[in-house]
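dumping this here so i dont lose it
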């Protein structure tokens, strides 16, 4: 691709006259026309001058003043929409939530809750360990250092889930084998780790299944594996520090270490996680985790009875990533509405199709803003978007607080989009439908024509 240049303002507006688009030029002309009309009205001279000046300046401001790249009309309608959304949210807030807000406003600030962690398997290499008793949980919350308890007791996923399948969550009969879902992009910063973590958390929290039509419903068993050797960030998303895959690779206490001994249970989501290496494994260090080690990890977790294995990979196509993509049941290519990301999407899809993986490809648009349109790239690739994740600052705050958005109450547009993405993997998940009152009354105004 040498010599390819991406012009600036690729997604900008088409300039017509005086550096203005057609809509901005129309606003300027309407302002001048209003000023001309005011001058010909039978009004006192001071009123005419002031009114005409206001009309002309208003049209010029709408045409040229653009804070953060948006017109003043956009910000005015956004302010009105924000106020209406606040009123709708207050009207739909239950009384208990309002009471809790009043109590929290009057009391002293509450200390941030420490993450609750537990190791899945003890030294007996059995199944999952039970959650720590309340006394240990209190000690963990009061201490600055979080220690992972190592229990030898065998237990199943007997912790009560947050949702009840009898309350409306379907639990179909699961007859297939374990599915491997991979989030991939040849460009960094598209949000692969974020989407993999959120989707895995939603599947573990809300997914139910039955072994037979007469058997009771059980929660899905979901494992999240971070295979990003250069920048493993799942630990930051979940607030878990150790053990990591590097501990598994460097364990010399036993001849053949079991990957299940290094899997961590995230208690808030009931998600099982194998964290990526705590250090960057680049250059010669990359040989520590190769295709044989990755194959052993996947085969061990598949034999452990997981229904879904969610993989996060690095933005490259080396031997390890190629093997993980070939082992995947479905590959979600993540793209953002930028020229560089779209160009990387074309390159990545071309490479994957040459590897014979075209039938596994799905597409996810992340960090989408109002007016962004990816219909042309999807048409070129002969695909469609499985989900459209809007740009939301809540993802950044969730990472800073080490809590997935899936664990938060209240929903929102981002939560609904994530549920739609999770439902494309496991259709039994219920996708929350947006009510008519919660829909944006000015959504039609924020839509912008796609350039090109």
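and the seq i came up w/
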């Amino acid at each position: 691709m040498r010599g390819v240049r991406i012009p600036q303002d690729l997604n900008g507006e088409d300039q017509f006259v005086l550096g203005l688009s057609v809509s901005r030029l129309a606003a300027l002309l309407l302002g001048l026309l209003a000023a001309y009309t005011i001058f010909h009205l039978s009004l006192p001279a001071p009123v005419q001058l002031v009114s005409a000046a206001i009309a002309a300046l208003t049209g010029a401001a709408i045409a040229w003043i653009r804070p953060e790249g948006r017109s003043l009309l956009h910000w005015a309608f956004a302010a009105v929409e924000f106020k209406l959304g606040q009123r709708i949210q207050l009207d739909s807030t239950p009384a208990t939530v309002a009471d809790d807000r009043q109590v929290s406003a009057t009391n002293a600030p509450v200390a941030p809750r420490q993450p609750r962690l537990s190791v899945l398997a003890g030294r007996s290499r059995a199944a999952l360990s039970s959650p720590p008793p309340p006394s240990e949980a209190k000690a963990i919350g009061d201490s600055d250092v979080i220690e992972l308890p190592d229990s030898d007791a065998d237990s199943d996923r007997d912790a009560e889930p947050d949702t009840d399948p009898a309350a409306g969550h379907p639990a179909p009969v699961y007859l297939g084998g374990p599915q491997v879902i991979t989030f991939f992009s040849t460009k960094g910063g598209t949000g692969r780790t974020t989407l993999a973590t959120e989707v895995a958390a939603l599947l573990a929290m809300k997914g139910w299944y039955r072994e037979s039509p007469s058997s009771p419903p059980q929660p899905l068993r979901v494992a999240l594996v971070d295979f990003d050797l250069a920048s493993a960030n799942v630990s930051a998303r979940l607030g878990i520090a150790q053990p990591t895959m590097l501990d598994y690779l460097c364990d010399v206490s036993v001849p053949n270490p079991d990957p299940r001994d290094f899997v961590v249970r995230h208690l808030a989501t009931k998600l099982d996680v194998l964290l990526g290496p705590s250090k960057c494994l680049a250059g010669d260090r990359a040989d520590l985790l190769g295709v044989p080690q990755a194959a052993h990890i996947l085969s061990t977790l598949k034999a452990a009875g997981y229904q879904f294995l969610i993989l996060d990979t690095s933005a490259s196509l080396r031997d390890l990533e190629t093997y993980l993509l070939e082992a995947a049941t479905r590959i979600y290519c993540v793209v953002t509405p930028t020229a560089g990301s779209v160009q990387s999407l074309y390159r990545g899809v071309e490479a994957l199709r040459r590897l014979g993986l075209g039938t596994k490809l799905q597409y996810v648009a992340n960090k989408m803003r109002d007016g962004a349109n990816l219909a042309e790239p999807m048409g070129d690739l002969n695909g469609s978007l499985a989900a459209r994740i809007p740009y939301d600052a809540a993802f950044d705050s969730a990472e800073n607080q080490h809590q997935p958005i899936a664990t938060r109450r209240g929903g929102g547009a981002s939560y609904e989009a994530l549920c739609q993405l999770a439902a494309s993997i496991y259709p039994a998940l219920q996708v929350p439908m947006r009510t008519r009152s919660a829909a944006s009354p000015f959504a039609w105004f924020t839509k912008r024509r796609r350039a090109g």
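The chain has a mean pLDDT of 75.
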